Amino acid sequence: MRIVLGVGGGIAAYKSASLLRLFTEAGHTVQVVPTESSTRFVGIATWEALSGHPVSTSVFDAVDTVNHVRLGHEADLIVVAPATADLLARAAAGLASDLLTNTLLMARGPVFFAPAMHTEMWNHPATQANVAALRSRGAVVMEPASGRLTGKDSGPGRLPEPSEIFAAALAAAAPVGAAAGRLAGKTVTVTAGGTREPLDPVRFLGNRSSGKQGAAVAEAALAEGARVRLIAAHMEVPVPAGAELVQVETALELRDAVHQAAAETDILVMAAAVADFRPGELAENKIKKRDDGADPVITLVRNPDILAEAVQRRAELGSGPALIVGFAAETGDGTSSVLEYGRRKLERKGCDLLVLNQVGRSLVFGQDTTEVRILSPQDAPGTEPIAVAGTKAEIARHILDRIADELDAPLPSH
What we know:
Structural class: alpha/beta
Number of domains: 2
CATH class of the largest domain: Alpha Beta
Largest sheet: 8 strands, mixed
Helix content: 25-40%
Strand content: 15-25%
Radius of gyration: 24 Å
Number of helices: 14
CATH architecture of the largest domain: 3-Layer(aba) Sandwich
Distance between the termini: 45 Å
């Protein structure tokens, strides 16, 4: 594969030398295109020695080959690492002020950005808007790692390790394999993570969800060739490279995002752990302990049933996802078993499939392994679905296989 490795002007540029080595040792041909400012961190001689090709920052070199056009046209993959805030801004604006930004404008294949910058720069609304714009055009923008940054500060904005960028970039550049996937041409929307319902400026009601299962489902859908949109609440795991990220916090925000996405979604997978209740009022100031020792009284109100609403809206509009998949995290009690509660939830929600698992201390939330049963309204009465156990990545592949099987079979009319 012919890869263009763009290098932005950040101190993390030294890590890209290791990334270059990973690409070349894997048999790929790599043309390095640094920005002028990046050469203050790693010189052109280093890139030429490691890549075995001449390196330039200017559109006025190799003019006879029309270099600024040729590089983008011939590249099977363009990887920009590190992608600084300035470079992301220029790419989002479509500027062509040097050889790298010209190459990005001429790209015919996948484009992958690995950002690196200080936390404040990454979180700035301008940077987030630029990232959203690039993702909306099909580019993959990897989430930065959290950790020690330049100087004494730390936080999100650190360049991921070269091995992580290597794997994610190659996964993003797999149109051949993806085209053979069972979900090629489909749009899959996955909700993941736990919603947080604010009590006051510093406190919230939340749950133990890590987002691992939803992220694994998104990654499995990408591997099957789908276009994937991930609506993410609080997550403790990275967003899979290649997924379009929609960030939310509360149940109401997640509801709005699901309704907005439904019109252009073939498969909706509701894996997020959505709070059933939220505080009736949001305190403007931090709730403090009272001198008289009285306990605060917090009134909770019910959150909307987003899954049931999605099913109802599909029926009312006569359009929307062909398949809606719900998740049920249940605990059994003296009245009913986990399976019995799951079947009742399937009937109430009206979804096409329900992924059922048992939750509790040291079960499911935050764990790397789980056990699920997939329930369907088409199950024969009295039958008990087979329990499947494994890592969350293995379970995600099992879920995607079942989804693909359902799409291959005639679906009931909704």
